Amino acid sequence: MSNITKAVIPAAGLGTRFLPATKALPKEMLPVVDKPAIQYVVEEAVGAGLAHVLMITGRHKNALENHFDRAVELENLLIEKGDKDRLGVVAEATGLADLHYVRQGDPLGLGHAISKAETFVGNEPFAVLLGDDLIEANSTLLKDMIEIAQNTQANVVALMEVPESDVHKYGIVRPGNRHDNVVEVSELVEKPSGEAAPSNFAVIGRYVLQPGVFEVLRNLKPGLGGEYQLTDALNEMAAHPELAGSVIGLVFEGRRFDTGDRLSYLKTIVELASERDDLGGEFTAWLRGFTSKL
Fold it and tell me: Is the pTM of this model over 0.85?
């Protein structure tokens, strides 16, 4: 049984849905209240015991590295001002994890991005966290997925039930036997139509993968959009578990925040801001008054 200590966070996307804001700023650095979305994801990884984090980046993503690096001039300024609260917030990101970076190069899909992590991962199972999906802070989803993967040597994907009208936005699984929230996966289909979808169980942006996935990715042919889709690799593994282990789904019933499009991003900010001890009361009072005028 291998302890899982490594996380891979693909962060090479151009964020075209948020242009012009993402023309010079990585979409992962867009703030969710007062903290960039990527920091929530790294904090989740660290909270699940993943101390070593690799970000798959691209051009114009230097802000990601800068955010998790020391900002000595800023820290000294805050020290001189005696602003301990802001100093603590600034320093918090610096020591979160052992962070590494590699560039994807050609934007050829999620499967291609993950293949860039092979040297970092080696012959160990590892977690993948997509930056567009934020999971509520007190969730044990990732810890539970890691435990299942360690106990079964399977590949574990996080699943959520979605409305039939939304299945075309996700990779959808064909579920087999189910015990509590653990589901056997026999097939995965990338963004099917409602009529073609094998279920309404959607794969969300959390995975724990066995190292055999890299061999599968090497032999993968381009799929939807000419890209190398992780869903296609997982489908191959589900059909042929001797390649890299079987695929298991863990059904998540908690809260997931989608920051991948503008409307969902705004909803995320409103919901999380409403729950803040320092902002929630005043913000929700204003929000009630504002919405009553609409």
Answer: yes
Structural domains of the chain, count: 1
What is the CATH number for 240? 3.90.550.10
Residue 184 in contact with residue 224, Cβ under 8 Å?
A: no
Place of tokens 């969902």: 264
Q: Is residue 168 part of a domain?
A: yes
Amino acid letter at 21? A
**Cβ–Cβ < 8 Å for 243, 233:** no
Residue 275 lies in a domain: no
- Where residue 134 falls (left for φ over 0; alpha for ψ -120 to 50; beta otherwise) is beta
Domain that holds residue 70: 6-260
pLDDT tens for 75-99 read 899 999 998 889 888 888 888 889 9
Q: Identify whether 115 is part of a domain.
A: yes
pLDDT tens for 125-151 read 999 999 899 999 899 999 999 999 999
- State the pLDDT confidence band at 2, using cuts at 50, 70 and 90: low
Quick check: is 199 in a domain? Answer: yes
**Which letter, b or e, does each residue of 68-89 get, where b requires 16 or more Cβ atoms within 10 Å of its Cβ?**
beeeeeeeeebeeeeeeeebee
